[in-house]
Design brief:
The protein is of the alpha/beta class and 248 residues long. Helices cover 46% and strands 16% of the residues.
Length: 248
């Protein structure tokens, strides 16, 4: 891929690295020569992502941790410091699905908010602190939100609360980071053909073929586009959805 801004040697942290989008982004970043640290809850799934990429041009490592927990975030950044030695790019893909509020116990909806919103804020803060401490001039934060905040479908109130928070956080923080030469991009995908969908792999594949779900690779390409723009280009918000996106 011809890049306006090379990723070779860049230190990249990808949260939600075992998910469909995280996997696809990791493959693209490593192929571009980046050093990539993947964070997610399940070590075995992370290994399934990292092991096939180990012989690529870049380097890849994993950290199994729960980002809904402050201790889990601290352990992840300990690994960022020890293995990456700093950070140039954060790609925050971590997230969980949600049911309707009326069907959820308080610990369950709190877990959604912690995983989808609080983790994005905490990971962003940790990345920015390291970029500023090191004097990184072209740092980049990429947060994966959702177009659900525009659709406001019935049954997605808790999920939308978390993703709406991500959108407002991203759109405001982006302006605050401009004086520090750190850019921030919000990616807003529609329905993605990943394990977060309540369908079997076969059904997901069928819906992708019918343009009702996005292939995770398409979302990864959108993320890579934002990550490879020149330092004077600010990709503010990039919305991408399947041709037949549900709207209710």
């Amino acid at each position: 891929m011809s890049s306006a801004f090379t990723l070779r040697g860049k230190r990249v942290l990808i949260t939600g690295g075992a998910g469909g989008v995280g996997r696809a982004v990791a493959a693209r970043m490593v192929a571009e020569g980046a050093r990539v640290l993947l964070a997610d809850r399940d070590e075995s799934l992370l290994r399934q992502v990292a092991d096939p990429l180990g012989g690529s041009e870049g380097e890849i490592d994993i950290i199994a941790t729960d980002l809904s927990d402050t201790g889990g975030i601290a352990r992840m950044f300990d690994r960022v410091d020890a293995w990456l030695g700093g950070i140039d790019i954060l790609v925050a893909c971590a997230g969980v699905g949600s049911g309707p509020l009326l069907e959820m116990a308080e610990p369950d909806w709190r877990y959604v908010i912690e995983s989808n919103l609080v983790s994005h804020v905490a990971c962003t803060q940790g990345a920015i602190e390291r970029m500023r401490r090191e004097g990184i001039k072209h740092g980049l934060i990429i947060l994966v939100g959702s177009i659900s905040v525009h659709i406001k479908a019935v049954g997605e109130s808790v999920y939308n609360a978390s993703k709406g928070g991500v959108a407002s956080f991203a759109e405001t923080l982006r302006k605050e980071l401009i004086p520090h030469s750190i850019r921030l991009t919000l990616i807003e995908p529609g329905a993605i053909g990943s394990a977060m969908q309540p369908f079997s792999p076969e059904e997901r594949a069928r819906l992708v073929e019918q343009y009702e779900l996005l292939p995770p690779e398409e979302v990864a390409d959108a993320i890579l586009f934002a990550a490879t723009r020149g330092p004077g280009v600010d990709v503010v918000t990039l919305r991408i959805e399947p041709l037949v996106q549900k709207i209710v």
